[in-house]
Design a protein that fits this description.
The chain is mainly β. The protein is built from no helices and 25 strands. The relative contact order is 0.14. The model has no long low-confidence stretch (mean pLDDT 97).
């Protein structure tokens, strides 16, 4: 990718991956916004975000992209959702959340954005905010059983799989392997089997009936393990190992390929411009 970053977020529209925000090597929040055209294997820089942010969550619906919360340069969690139009290459403030949030995870189900977990004022939270894209409203959903930040998620059908993260305590990261499954039909969050390698600062995608988890960090190392939860079997398996272990990375699926982008190769503030590809049979 064109620049080295960590703590980024990505989403897919058509055959293009969009990448937002992040931290630079100097520890500054970035307002840069990029698109990676998969068929053309080409990066392009787009209109800059309205504010420099890192640790954002990011989703898309149709040709609209939503960037949620995140930290500013002062590491203050934000309460805005920005909307980007692919057609016009333009940004606007979409709405304001009830509470600021950073290092959260989000997914789209129908006309709703579900935002889980994250951090606020130095503490992990178990929030579940539901944004109605038609009514332009925000309500609280059923809370996570385990408060955590730097987590990730993936959606299949009407279920969101919320995995990993951390609950810092006493100066320790306290990584988690927790898996919680939200069922949109019932509005219930249930507990699944924990991920074999507890970790945070991860990225997850849904593909071929599996939730794949990439990367992460602890106090002493970054993780290269790629582990997958089979939603039909209800069990985890180890798939492979990333060429460049990283945390604060993004992952996105286009066709039979998972692109694993940016992130820090060492714990703490490190950055990279890596764009690895996992090709699925």
């Amino acid at each position: 990718m064109p620049v080295r970053l960590s703590e980024v977020a990505a989403t897919v529209v058509g055959q293009t991956i969009y990448l937002a925000g992040g931290l630079t090597a100097e520890g500054r929040a970035s307002d840069r916004f990029f698109a990676f055209d998969v068929p053309e294997v080409r990066w392009k820089e787009l209109a800059r975000m309205p504010a420099p942010l890192h640790h954002v969550a990011m989703v898309s619906q149709g040709d609209q992209i939503f960037v949620i919360g995140g930290y500013d340069d002062g590491w203050t969690a934000q309460d805005r959702i920005y909307r980007y139009s692919v057609k016009s290459d333009g940004w606007e403030v979409f709405l304001t959340l009830k509470r600021p949030i950073a290092a959260a995870t989000a997914q789209v189900l129908g006309n709703e954005i579900h935002i889980f977990g994250g951090a606020r004022k130095g503490h992990a939270v178990n929030d579940h905010a539901i944004v109605d894209l038609e009514r332009l409203s925000v309500v609280d959903g059923v809370s996570l059983r385990v408060a955590r930040e730097h987590l990730s998620s993936a959606v299949m059908g009407k279920r969101i799989y919320v995995v990993g993260g951390r609950a810092p305590s006493g100066g320790r990261i306290n990584n988690l392997g927790t898996l919680e499954i939200y069922d949109a039909d019932t509005g219930v969050l249930s507990e699944g089997p924990p991920m074999p390698t507890p970790r945070s600062g991860i990225a997850a995608v849904a593909v071929k009936g599996m939730v794949m988890v990439f990367g992460g960090e602890s106090e002493t190392r970054t993780f290269g393990e790629v582990e997958a939860y089979d939603v039909n079997r209800g069990s985890w398996t180890s798939l492979t190992y990333m060429p460049t272990p990283r945390h604060g990375l993004a992952a996105a699926t286009v066709g039979n390929r998972v692109y694993v982008i940016a992130g820090g190769p060492r714990p703490g503030l490190t950055v990279s411009d890596v764009n690895d590809v996992l090709i699925l049979e």
